[in-house]
């Protein structure tokens, strides 16, 4: 059996569980989700797993003694609007195939294993995400069930109609002693593995994220009547900031700093901008380095404001700490995927929430052009086959708990 | 008589001809315009002028033989929304006062003089402007009469209802031999005279204006998963451009370059901008220097695009040539306003359109903080008094044509 080609076939099939339009659009607790669930149940059955849906809508396939501590492996079934057919669902498919491969070869599993297909990681339908892993970790805020989608349907109502049970979600919290760890296989969603010419990468941690609102305040004036000398142009100061942040960030290993949004006031062709507002997102695997860069950005902005005679402010609007992967699991995954480089994850994953419950690790699979969340998203059968092999070796090498 | 205080009183009074709200809001061919017209007729009467409204809605006060060539002096009666009480209307008030001052002193006028109160220079109510001076210069496009305001009333209909006659506007074109020149007194709308500590300035020309659409095209990507190295961030390239244009323009005497508007796509906090669009407005009294700067901006943009690995485009979307003031009139105005510095006008004025008919010149009056088009717009009684004196001397010294 060519597990990579099999993975490609399965992902092509389940990509059909989508709203019409380009790419894959599969939101949680919808008819498309229900159709995908049926297909995933087929995968789990072929892997010899016992299947159940938990109260949070996570489809769980388990093998091994009922009360034994289990190693968990999974990802999410949902997509963004017009997304690709690998993000999330590939991790579920490859987990099933890794167990099926071990069964085919007659390799015994050293402990109980559960494959988890989480309902909602992208957070597109409801203004929340990660319900499934948070439920297992005991970190669900019951308020989220009242959040509504565009049609006014609450998360709780949608979950119950799908076969979940909002009232029982709090009871899903696992005893940490019953969970041995969590592995997530995911496409990289970036270009690092392609640039390194490697099919697989071992994730050392998930970057912390902070978002900042940045503002420069100058003075508007007529573009014709105010001479250049003495202008207090807020956009010019903001431009200095954009350039300085970008060029400084390039010298900070592992750091990502992005100014994704900018607006000026009054925003007309013949007026000097009196105000520029921009967003600054900073990500790093090490929260202290991220804080250091925030301080550096503040100094850069203040110096520019002085030079350009403008006001300056930076305010953190959001922060999410980094999640380090477990060193022992990282080492074990490197044994199972020889030659795979270490790299951080710049994006959040189900593993981010699972880390509140147990040691986590992630295996990244190369994706073409680093493209994700678009119909063109692609991982090759060869690379997915390599991931199945690595995951199977990893599971087989787990400490024997039977 | 203190002509400056008189000017202040008259401008305070006519400022009441406004929609309610902060500052002055007086659009053409409205009840506010009609009320202002009555007051201006009073000013013209006190200056001994014969009054008529022409077909384009310009209120004209004339003194001197009916068929003799006339020197024209004027400005506009309208304002922007929430504007000040000096822009435009001050030029009409001071023109009347200059003639009244000469009459009071018994100084004979050397030629026929007409004071012109144009209806619409700001172009706020209808998407066109300068109807009055264009009518005199014979440059009106008859299509403009079909243009509508927000309420669906056409310019032609509004003009006719006010006492004008759209069908007769084309016939207003003056024989250049019948017009000796045009003087416009206007607040500077910039900070140059205040910085030079001078009440008056002699305008050497009205800057040409060009507007350009500038675009940088890079590649979007996830703010977390795409390392800094190798990013093709369109906003970073655009920021380089903003800074370079501003700092280069400071070294070009008399040039103004403004990037007043910017937008990026996709414009979200966690995505690298794939596209940045901005406007570049360039103004200079010398069209060749403006073209030189355009070429320089093109080179700057191309070099940045190469360095940042983005696409770059610049497209001129609008161009209006410079209008030089008449050297003989400039010299005569300098005689009448000793010590007044020469300066260009960065903004367009009625004089821009009058230049198609006759030699023009402008006298700028200092305004506080360079502020215009806002309720805080202010020119002092002393400065306006100095302008009345200078205009009176200028008119009295015109070549004798009686």
State the assembly state of the protein chains. homodimer
Largest interface: A-B, 60 and 60 residues
Within the CATH hierarchy, at the fold level, what is the topology of the largest domain in chain A? Aminopeptidase
CATH class of the largest domain in chain A: Alpha Beta
Unreliable spans of chain A: none
Largest sheet of chain A: 9 strands, mixed
Task: Give me the CATH architecture of the largest domain in chain A, please.
Answer: 3-Layer(aba) Sandwich
| Helix share bin of chain A | 25-40%
The CATH homologous superfamily name of the largest domain in chain A equals: Zn peptidases
Coarse structural class of chain A? alpha/beta
CA gyration radius of chain A, whole angstroms: 24 Å
CA-to-CA gap between the ends of chain A? Answer: 28 Å
Q: Tally the helices of chain A: what do you get? A: 11
Q: What is the ordering of alpha helices and beta strands of chain A?
A: HHEEEHEHHEHEEHEEEHEEHEHEH
* Integer tally of domains of chain A: 2
Instruction: Give the overall pLDDT of chain A as a whole number.
Output: 97
Q: What proportion strand of chain A?
A: 15-25%
Overall shape of chain A: it is: elongated
Number of strands of chain A: 14
């Amino acid at each position: 059996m060519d597990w990579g080609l099999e993975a490609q076939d399965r992902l092509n099939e389940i990509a059909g569980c989508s709203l019409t339009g380009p790419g894959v659009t599969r939101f949680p607790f919808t008819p498309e989700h229900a159709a995908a669930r049926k297909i995933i149940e087929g995968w789990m059955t072929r892997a010899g797993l016992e299947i159940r849906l938990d109260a949070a809508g996570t489809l769980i396939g388990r093998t091994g003694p009922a009360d034994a501590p289990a190693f968990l492996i999974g990802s999410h079934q949902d997509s963004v609007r017009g997304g690709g057919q690998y993000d999330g669902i590939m991790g579920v498919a490859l987990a099933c195939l890794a167990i099926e491969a071990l069964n085919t070869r007659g390799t015994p599993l050293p402990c109980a294993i559960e494959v988890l297909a989480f309902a909602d990681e992208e957070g597109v339908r409801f203004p929340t995400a990660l319900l499934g892993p948070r439920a297992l970790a005991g970190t669900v805020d019951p308020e989220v069930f009242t959040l509504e989608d565009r049609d006014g349907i609450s998360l709780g109502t949608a979950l119950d109609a799908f076969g979940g049970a909002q009232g029982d979600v709090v009871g899903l919290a696992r005893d940490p002693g019953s969970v041995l760890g969590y592995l997530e296989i995911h496409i990289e969603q970036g270009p690092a593995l392609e640039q390194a010419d490697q099919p697989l990468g071992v994730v050392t941690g998930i970057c912390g994220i902070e978002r900042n609102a940045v503002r420069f305040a100058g003075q508007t004036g007529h573009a014709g009547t105010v001479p250049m000398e003495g202008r207090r142009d807020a956009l010019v100061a903001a431009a200095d900031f954009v350039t300085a942040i970008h060029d400084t960030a390039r010298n900070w290993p592992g750091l990502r700093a992005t100014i994704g949004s900018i607006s000026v006031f009054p925003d007309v062709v013949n007026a000097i901008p009196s105000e520029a507002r921009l967003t600054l997102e900073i990500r790093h695997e090490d929260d202290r380095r991220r804080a250091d860069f925030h301080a550096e950005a503040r100094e850069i902005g203040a110096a520019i404001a002085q030079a350009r005679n403008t006001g300056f402010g930076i305010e953190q609007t959001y922060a999410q700490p980094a999640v380090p992967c477990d060193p022992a699991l990282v080492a074990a995954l490197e044994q199972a995927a020889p030659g795979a480089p270490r790299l951080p994850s710049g994006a959040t994953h189900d593993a981010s929430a699972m880390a509140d419950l147990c040691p986590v690790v992630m295996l990244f699979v190369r994706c073409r052009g680093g493209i994700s969340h678009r119909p063109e998203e692609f991982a090759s059968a060869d690379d997915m086959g390599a991931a199945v092999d690595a995951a199977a070796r990893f599971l087989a090498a787990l400490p024997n708990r039977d």
